[in-house]
Structure formats: structure tokens, C-alpha cells
């Protein structure tokens, strides 16, 4: 859920019905839903249907296939050859005084990662790492191993009055980092010199076309990492700067898991498939909760269902832009899934207002 895909052909509402009342979830929707209820209420004779035990077994079987895939796919991926890279640099505790030292250590680590990737024949990764080693780049963290992790800063953390932390969705890796960086850079240019923007690729994102993007497993692993980062950031910059958490696509699931434990003033959910909870109040945060979706975002066509099977949650539940969720819904214009940080867009303008604390100027949807 980190890039634009071919649109699904089936459109479903939260109760699993498509326009005209036809169900698109095969009757495996919310607990207690009756796929033939409408016909019975209208006085028509319903079609013969599967007995509830048989239907329940079918639903559980389909969900089991999804969960099995969510386990098997990552294990299969882990068996693929890895591009060699050094372990992360040993860093002093984060503080304003150690920023210069931290940035230099991570640039040196990226340069070594580039050399190792080049020796391995991984030219694309070598080029990506080499770009990150540029003297013009500032990283609070860098890890070139596996799909990679990086935390890049745009602006001056030492003097910033406002800080935005961006949390990406699926398919964001060091190899695809350029598009994530472009969004962070656009936000920084839009918010001006009083703001620092942090692109936090601090977790292993799932694949959009893999079943890992259908479960909360990666989010549950990522949330403690995000919580720790925000805690360390607060310890470094103090309580004065306002911190906003801007979360995209699967990143909204991560932010929902961390929301109760992070000291931020705003949690912003854009292009969300759902967050794994049914309302903003269920996030248990004192922060303002915002949500938006572009008019051309394919994520609108994803059914907002959630089911628990063998301890694994499949699907993410209530749509954050629906009235039932209770978020502050703002205008995102006509953009698609990858357009929320597009320069000149209504979405970027509103995101900038939120980060700057100009909440009264945010245009509502």
C-alpha cells in the first residue's frame, strides 16, 4: 500500500455490500451479518443457502489461507540472498549536541554499505547507499542490511519550532526510498525554515501485493520502534516543539498501534486501509486525530472488514474518513494514493497547516 496499483474491480461498503445490495465478501463480513436478510425483509423467497456451520467453515478456511500466506511469504523472502552491509554505526545518545556527530557517523556507514553492495554486484543498492552518504544528507539512523532502514532529517532539529515525522506504507525500502524522500522534502519546502521534517523508515514494511499488507503483524512489530524513536526525539529537542505524526497507507496501522504511547500533538492518517480500531477514541491518544483520502485513491475500494483468526488480525476495520470513526476529515483534493505530498496539492497544503499548528485554516472535506 505504498504505491499506485491497478484498481480492484469490486467496490464494497463497510457492511460488505456493493451498490445494489450485492455482497462482495462472500458472506464473510462482520459478525452477525446476514447476506440474505434484505431478501427476507422484502418478502421475497431467499435463495437456498449454505447452512451456517458450512458457511462458517468456508469463511475460516479462506481466512486461514490468508494467514498462512502472511507467514509463508515472509519466510520465503527471508531465504533469498541478502545484499551485504555493515552493522549500523555505534551512536551516542540522541541530543542536540550530538547531531553533527550522528550525521557524520551515518554518512560514513552508508558509504561503507555502498562499497559492500558494489562488490556484491548490487549496483542499484550501491547507488542508493552512495546517495545517502552525500555530505548534504542528514540521518539520525541508517541500516543498509536487508531491505534497509533510514531516518532522514530535513531542516534544523536544533532550532525547529515544529517537527513532522512521516511514517511510510508498504513497499518502502532503501531501493524505493526516493519517492518517500520526495514527499518529506516537499513538506519541508511547504512548511518553511521553522520546521524540521523527519522521514522515518524505521521498520520493515510489508509488500503491497503480499498478504503481510493484510494483517497487523508488521505494525505490531513496528509500533514499539516508533514509540522509542519519538521518546528519544522528545528527549533531544525538549517539550517546546510541536510534533506531528503523519502516516500514509499501511503506516496508519503502525501509527494507530503507537498512538497511545507517543507525545505528539497531531496524528494524521492519509490513504488509510483502516487502522485496526473502530474509532479515533479507541486510539487512546490526547492528540488531534485527522484523516483524509484523495478522490482518485484506490484504497477507497478496499473493503473495511476485520477478522481475528488464530491470534492474527486480517483486515483493518472501520474507514478512518467515515463519520463512524470520528476523525477530523480534511480535504485531499482529487489525487491518488501516492499524491498526498504532491507539491501544489490541496492535501499538502492542509498537511502543512496541521504541522504548523494552523488548524483553523485546514479545509474540511
Automatic annotation (TrEMBL):
Entry-linked InterPro entries: AB_hydrolase_fold, DUF1023
Keyword Glycosyltransferase: no
Transmembrane segments annotated in the record for this chain: 58-79
Domain of life: Bacteria
Biased composition (Basic and acidic residues): 1-25
Region of interest (Disordered), ranges: 1-53
Listed Pfam families: Abhydrolase_8 (PF06259)
DUF1023 domain mapped to chain residues: 143-306
Keyword line: Hydrolase, Membrane, Transmembrane, Transmembrane helix
GO terms for MF: hydrolase activity
Residues making up the signal peptide according to the UniProt record: none
Protein name: Alpha/beta hydrolase
Organism field: Streptomyces yaanensis
Lineage: Bacteria, Bacillati, Actinomycetota, Actinomycetes, Kitasatosporales
Amino acid at each position: 500500500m505504498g504505491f499506485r496499483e491497478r484498481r480492484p474491480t469490486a467496490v464494497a461498503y463497510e457492511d460488505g455490500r456493493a451498490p445494489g445490495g450485492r455482497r462482495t465478501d462472500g458472506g464473510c463480513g462482520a459478525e452477525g451479518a446476514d447476506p440474505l436478510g434484505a431478501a427476507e425483509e422484502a418478502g421475497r423467497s431467499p435463495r437456498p443457502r449454505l447452512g451456517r456451520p458450512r458457511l462458517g467453515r468456508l469463511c475460516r478456511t479462506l481466512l486461514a489461507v490468508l494467514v498462512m500466506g502472511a507467514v509463508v511469504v515472509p519466510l520465503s523472502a527471508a531465504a533469498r540472498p541478502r545484499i551485504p552491509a555493515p552493522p549500523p554505526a555505534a551512536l551516542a545518545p540522541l541530543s542536540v549536541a550530538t547531531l553533527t556527530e550522528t550525521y557524520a557517523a551515518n554518512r560514513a556507514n552508508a558509504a561503507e554499505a555502498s562499497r559492500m553492495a558494489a562488490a556484491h554486484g548490487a549496483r542499484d543498492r550501491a547507488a542508493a547507499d552512495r546517495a545517502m552518504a552525500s555530505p548534504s544528507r542528514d540521518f539520525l539512523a541508517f541500516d543498509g542490511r536487508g531491505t534497509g532502514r533510514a531516518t532522514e532529517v530535513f531542516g534544523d532539529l536544533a532550532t525547529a519550532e515544529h517537527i513532522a515525522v512521516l511514517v511510510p506504507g508498504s513497499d518502502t525500502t532503501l531501493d524505493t526510498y526516493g519517492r518517500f524522500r520526495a514527499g518529506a522534502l516537499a513538506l519541508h519546502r511547504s512548511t518553511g525554515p521553522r520546521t524540521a521534517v523527519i522521514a522515518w523508515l524505521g521498520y520493515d514494511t510489508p509488500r503491497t501485493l503480499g498478504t503481510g499488507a493484510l494483517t497487523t503483524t508488521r505494525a505490531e512489530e513496528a509500533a514499539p520502534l516508533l514509540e522509542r524513536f519519538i521518546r528519544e526525539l522528545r528527549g533531544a529537542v525538549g517539550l517546546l516543539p510541536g510534533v506531528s505524526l503523519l502516516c500514509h497507507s499501511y503506516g496508519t496501522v503502525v501509527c494507530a498501534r503507537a498512538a497511545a504511547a507517543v507525545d505528539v500533538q497531531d496524528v494524521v492518517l492519509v490513504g488509510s486501509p483502516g487502522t485496526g480500531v473502530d474509532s479515533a477514541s479507541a486510539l487512546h491518544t490526547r492528540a488531534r486525530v485527522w484523516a483524509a483520502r484523495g478522490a482518485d485513491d484506490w484504497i477507497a475500494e478496499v473493503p473495511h472488514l476485520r477478522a481475528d483468526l488464530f491470534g492474527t488480525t486480517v483486515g483493518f476495520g472501520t474507514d478512518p474518513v467515515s463519520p463512524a470513526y470520528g476523525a477530523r476529515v480534511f480535504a485531499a483534493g482529487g489525487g491518488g494514493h501516492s499524491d498526498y505530498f504532491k507539491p501544489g496539492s490541496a492535501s499538502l497544503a492542509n498537511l502543512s497547516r496541521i504541522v504548523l499548528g494552523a488548524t483553523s485554516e485546514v479545509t474540511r472535506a
